[in-house]
Amino acid sequence: MSEQKTVTTADEEAESALATARAQLERAATHIDVDAGIVERLKHPTKVLRGSVPLERDDGTVEIFTGYRAQHDDVRGPYKGGLRYHPDVTEDECIGLAMWMTWKCAVMDLPFGGAKGGIVVDPKDLSAAEQERLTRRFAEEMRDFVGPTVDIPAPDMGTDAQTMAWFMDAYSMQEGETVPGVVTGKPPVIGGSYGRSEAPGRSVALVTRETADHYDLPLETATVAVQGFGSVGSEAARLLDEWGATVVAVSDVSGGIYDADGLDTHAIESHGERPEAVSPTEGTSQITNEELLELDVDVLIPAAVGNVLTNANADAVQADIIVEGANGPTTTEADRIFAERGVPVIPDIVANAGGVTVSYFEWLQDINRRQWSLERVHEELEAEMLSAWEDVRAEFTARDVTWREAAYIVALSRVAEAKSTRGLWP
């Protein structure tokens, strides 16, 4: 793949992931004493890789797909971030998501920087054999830019543990040795970590629990609505259900269901278990994804896709607390409206950071060639999440800021200190 300089156009969409990430960075920088040059550097990725990924289809024809990898910052350690297969993957989206990964790793105090990448493709249009060939070719195209101490991909939208296994195998075959640490999110049988796939949802549930405690909301009396019943939303919903909360609504891409008395979340199949399985049953009523966001509940967890809470619906949201399960579900304007209304929004870079945290655990296990038990993973994850939560809460209570600004203050302070200490190469 070739390196490509990034040019930000004047007419960049206001609600793109990149524009939102930059706006959040600038807002956080006003609250702390950080060199303007460092802030300017952090607005831009270190590099963006773009390449053509040829695929021989099952019928013998050849199709060319575009692949990206944005590497935002590595001042605190190797780049880290997901690979997604989705028709809407763009360069700007990868850069914005890579920036969020930098902050996510920093707020969790992990020795990683941020990256994100993907291929512009709908995986539903590919057979399993085609997905494997595409992944192996993508791994070869990226081989000079990734590695256990350079850049470590992980699963994301449209990719999974099997994708990471193919990627790792292709990379290892070219290196002439097994290199499990080149990716995380692999199956445990080849160096993956137990508990990795459910980690983002688990962290969302943990942060929701701590947030409820902060606002003196007993979890046993809390009502919760979850948009997106995939790997993140289903895990969060089921854990909160187990801990005593009443999950009144869940949804997937086909729509949602609602029951004021509470749903049996374990009886509902997640999107990964059976796509579009959320459908009305006896005692439940059907609602749209848009209606779910406006339900009168204690906690709303948008865990589907980005930009679902906007200036068009922010005033209609009735939830007392919002915990972001997806990446970037709240636009800048919606954030402003929620702040004016006094609605707490717990940001994605804290709430769903369980994924990268257990990826870090996996990386450590691969380096040491020693696998942890699921019980240890859960214990270590909870300890890391509670530590990060307390760091963010300390800034929130000490300053007149939002939860998002508090999280960015923690993250930016750590990244800026590292940059200041290392200095700028001439």
Structure description:
- The longest helix is centred in the C-terminal third of the chain and has 25 residues, at 374-398.
- The chain has helices at residues 17-29, 36-42, 91-107, 128-142, 161-175, 199-214, 231-242, 289-293, 332-341, 348-351, 354-368, 374-398, 403-422; strands spanning 2-4, 47-56, 62-73, 79-86, 113-120, 151-155, 223-227, 246-252, 255-258, 285-287, 299-302, 321-323, 345-346.
- The radius of gyration is 21 Å and the shape is globular.
- The chain is an alpha/beta fold and 426 residues long.
- The strands form two sheets. The protein has a seven-stranded mixed beta sheet.
- 52% of the residues are buried.
- It has two domains: 17-24 and 34-181, 3-Layer(aba) Sandwich (Rossmann fold), CATH 3.40.50.10860; 199-346, NAD(P)-binding Rossmann-like Domain (Rossmann fold, 3-Layer(aba) Sandwich), CATH 3.40.50.
* Strands side by side in the biggest sheet: 10-9-8-7-11-12-13
Task: Tally the helices.
Answer: 13
Quickly give the CATH architecture of the largest domain: 3-Layer(aba) Sandwich
The tally of domains stands at 2
In short:
This is Glutamate dehydrogenase. Belongs to the Glu/Leu/Phe/Val dehydrogenases family. The protein is an alpha/beta fold.
List the helices and strands and how they pair.
Layout: E1 2-4, H1 17-29, H2 36-42, E2 47-56, E3 62-73, E4 79-86, H3 91-107, E5 113-120, H4 128-142, E6 151-155, H5 161-175, H6 199-214, E7 223-227, H7 231-242, E8 246-252, E9 255-258, E10 285-287, H8 289-293, E11 299-302, E12 321-323, H9 332-341, E13 345-346, H10 348-351, H11 354-368, H12 374-398, H13 403-422
Parallel strand pairs: 4-5, 4-6, 7-8, 7-11, 11-12, 12-13
Antiparallel strand pairs: 1-2, 2-3, 3-5, 8-9, 9-10
Helix pairs in contact: 1-3, 1-13, 3-13, 4-5, 6-7, 6-11, 6-12, 11-12, 12-13
Keywords: Oxidoreductase
Active site: 116 (proton donor)
Subunit structure: Homohexamer.
